[in-house]
Input
Amino acid sequence: MSKTRAFYVEHWKVIAFFLIIYDFVTIAFSYFFGLWLRFDFHFLLIPEKYLAVYYKFIVPFAILSIAIYWFMKLYRSIWRFASYNELINIAIATFTCGALNYILTRLFGARMPVSYHVIGFLLQVMFAAVVRFSYRFILLLKRQQRNSKNNTNVMLIGAGDAGLTILRDINKNIESTARVVCIIDDNTNKYGRYIDGVPVVGGRDDILKNVEKYNISKIYYAIPSSTNAQKRDILNICRETGCEIKVLPGIQQIVNGDVSVSMMKNVAIEDLLGRDVVNVNNEEIADFVRDKVVMVTGGGGSIGSELCRQISKHHPKQLIIFEIYENNAYDIQQELVREYPKLNLVVLIGSVRDSKRIDQVFDRYRPQIVFHAAAHKHVPLMETSPCEAIKNNTIGTFKTAYAATKYGTERFVLISTDKAVNPTNIMGASKRMCEMVIQTFAKLIQNNETDKLAVVEDCFSEMSAEHLEGKTEFVAVRFGNVLGSNGSVIPLFKKQIEAGGPVTVTHPDIIRYFMTIPEAVSLVLQAGVYAKGGEIFILDMGEPVKIDTLARNLIKLSGFKPDEDIKIVYTGLRPGEKLYEEKLMDAEGNKKTENDLIYIGEPLEIDEDVFLKQLKELYEASYDNDEEKLLKLSAETVVTYTRSEE
Output
C-alpha cells in the first residue's frame, strides 16, 4: 500500500512569503504617505492627477521592488545573524527601487511632487530594515533579560585582529551566556577606547584589578603572534586570578582566517613553560628521509609515534613501524593512513628482544635509517624488574644494532635519556649501556673490527652471524622528560586532579628538564642529519622546572587552589630517583652544532673488548633472571652507576 507523502514547506519559505506580503503593503503605504504628507494629511486636497499616477504605478512598482529584493537575497538571509552585509544589501535594493520609481514616472510623463519620491524612498528603507533587524534585536533583548543574572563575564586579552574576531564571534552567538566586558592590551594608545562598545581597560598589569572590578569568570587570550615568553608572562598573571583561561593555538589561525571561539583551547602546562620556539632546518631533515626506507622501533609510543608523524611529512620511500603493543601500533597506523593516504606504510608487531624477528624484518625491508625508540622507561617499575630493563633496553638495542650493521643500514639513531648520566637506577644504567653499545659499534666499524661483534653474537643463538657490511653510522640522542609522554608526570597529575586529589609529588625540591614531544622529535631528526658516527647528541632542554611548581600550576589551570581545593602530598623519593637530572657526565665536554639547541657530548673512552665481555655476562644474567648478579654486573659495567638505597 502506498502512502501519499505529506506536503512540506521549509520554514524560511513561509517567512519569505509573509515578508513579500509585508513589503508589498509597506511599499504601497510609503509612497502614499509621501503624497498624503505633501498635502498636510488631507486626502481630499490631493489632486486627481497625482492619485491617478499613484494608482497606475504603485502595483507594478511594488512587484518590481519585490523582484529586486529577491535578487539582493533579502528573502533568503538568516536574519537572526543580520549584520553589516545585510544592511548594505537593503540600502542597494531600496536605492535602486527609489531611482526606478523616479525614472519610470518621468518617462511616462507623470511629474510627481519631490516629497512623494523622497518620503516614499525613506519610508521604504525604514520599513525594509526595521522588520528584518527587529528579529535579531528582539532575540538580543530576550537574551539579555534571560541571562542578566547568569552572564559569564569574559576578559579578552588582545585588541588586535584576532581579539576583534573573537569578540564579534561571541556577540554573534545569541544563545551564548558569555559576554566580553573588558579588553586588555599592552598598547597604551588603545587605553580608554572602545571596540564594539567594550572598553580597553589597560595592560597586563591591570589584569588582576579588572578581574575583580568586572567580576570576570573567563579569560580569553587572543594574541597568537606573541612570543612564548610574552605568552608565559601574561598567562602566569592570569593563572593567579582563578578564572578559566582559554587561548588561541597560534598565528596560523590568523593566516588561515580560521579564528573563532571554538578554536580556543584550554591553557596547557606547555604554555606556562614559555620556551622559545625550536627551530630546525626542515629542508635538511626532508633531504635526510626523503625517498629512504625508514624504520622506527617502538613506533607506537609517545616519542616513536611523533617520529612517525614528522617523518611522514617528508615523503619517505617507506615507513616501517615496529612495535610490541598492538593497540599503540593500530592507533598510529590509522592516524597516518588518514593523514597521509599516499604513504607507503608498513606496521609490524614484534619485540626487539626477538633476534629472529628482528633479523627477518631487516632482511626483508632493508631499512636505510633506523630510529631506535623501543625501551622500558618507567624508573620505579624497572627497579623492581631489573632483568627486564637489561633484556629490553640494553640487549634489545644490541640485537637491533647488530641487524642494522648486518644488513647495511646507513644510519642508526638511538633515543637515549638524561637518566643515563650518573644513573642511580637500573633504567638509567641500562640506557647508558645502550649508549655504550652504540659507541662500540661505531668504533669497531671505523676500525674495521666488526668481527669482534660476532664473538658477542655467539651468545645470541637466534641470530645467525654472517658477514657484517660495516657501514652503519651509529649515534645517540640524549634528552630529558617530554611533556605528555607515557612516562611523564603530567598525565598522572591530571588524573589525580580529576579524582579530587591529592596530587603526589615525591619531593618539594625535585627538578626536571622538560620539552614538548614535537620539539624533542624535531631535534632528534635534526641530530640525525648531523650524525657522522659515534656521537652522543645532547638536546638543550632549557631551564629546569620544579615538579612541585608544575603540579601547583596544573591545579590552578584546572580551576582549583593548591592545598585548599586540591592537596599536594610529598611521598618521598622513589627507589632510583634523583633530585635532579644531569645532561652530561663530568668527563664529557660538549661541542656546538649548527643548531643552538643541539650539542655533541664527547664520548667517554671505553674498552670495547671488556665491554663486550661484560655485555655477554649481562645477557646471561638477565635471561637467568639473576637480579643480584645482574645489578652487580651493571655497576661494574657502568662505573658511574650508583645504586640508591631503598
About this structure: The radius of gyration is 36 Å. DSSP finds 22 helices and 22 strands in the chain.
